[in-house]
Design a protein that fits this description.
mainly alpha; 2 domains; four-stranded antiparallel sheet; 4 strands
C-alpha cells in the first residue's frame, strides 16, 4: 500500500482519502471550518499562563525604580539616604511579591489543566500527539478519520473508521498509550 493510496475502512475506496495533515494544512480541496476544527492538531501547551506572564513582567520592571532609588543610598544627606533605603525595601518587596504571585498563578494554572484532564502537558507529549496526528488519514467521501495499519508502530493495527467528533479524543488517548508503550517506531516493516 503506497502512502498516496490508502483505502478507507468504511467504504474501502482510496480515491478520496488524504492524510489529515494535508487536508487541514491546505491540500487541493478546502475543508469546512467545522470539519477543520475537529481535525486540527491540539495546541501546543503553554509554558506560562497569561496571568503569570504579566506578573513576572511586573516583577522585572521593578528593577528600574530599584536602580533609581539605590543611587540615593550613598547620598551624604541623611534624609535622602533614609528615603532611598525605605524606597529600596518597598520596591524590592513589591518585586518579590509580583514574582511570588506569578509563581502561584502559574502553579494554579498547571494544576487546573491537570485536574481537567488536559493532555498534552509538556512539549514532548505535544510532539508525540503531533506525530500521531500526522499519521491520521481522512476519507472525504465518508467524512471519517482513520489510521492505516503500521502507521504508528509495527504492532499497530488499522483503526476503525472514526467519526470526526471523536477524532480528538482518539488522538489524545492513542498518544497517551503510545507514550506509555515507549514511543513511536522509527521505521515500518
Amino acid at each position: 500500500m503506497s502512502p498516496t493510496s490508502v483505502p478507507c475502512p468504511a467504504c474501502a475506496t482510496s480515491d478520496r482519502t488524504v492524510p489529515v495533515s494535508v487536508a487541514v494544512l491546505g491540500g487541493d480541496t478546502p475543508l469546512d471550518p467545522a470539519v477543520r476544527a475537529q481535525l486540527d492538531v491540539p495546541r501546543e501547551p503553554k509554558s506560562l499562563s497569561p496571568g503569570s506572564t504579566v506578573l513576572f513582567v511586573l516583577a522585572g520592571l521593578q528593577l528600574l525604580p530599584l536602580l533609581m532609588v539605590l543611587g540615593g543610598i550613598g547620598d551624604p544627606d541623611p534624609t535622602v539616604r533614609n528615603f532611598s533605603l525605605i524606597a529600596t525595601l518597598l520596591v524590592l518587596a513589591l518585586g518579590i511579591g509580583f514574582a511570588t504571585a506569578g509563581r502561584l498563578v502559574l502553579n494554579a494554572a498547571r494544576a487546573r489543566r491537570r485536574a481537567q484532564g488536559g493532555w498534552p502537558l509538556s512539549y514532548d507529549q505535544w510532539t508525540l500527539v503531533h506525530k500521531v496526528w500526522r499519521a491520521a488519514w481522512l476519507c472525504r467521501a465518508c467524512q471519517v478519520a482513520f489510521f492505516p495499519a503500521w502507521s504508528l508502530r509495527p504492532d499497530f493495527p488499522a483503526s476503525p473508521a472514526l467519526q470526526l467528533p471523536h477524532f480528538q479524543d482518539w488522538l489524545t488517548e492513542t498518544s497517551k498509550q503510545i507514550d506509555l508503550a515507549g514511543g513511536l517506531a522509527t521505521t515500518a516493516p
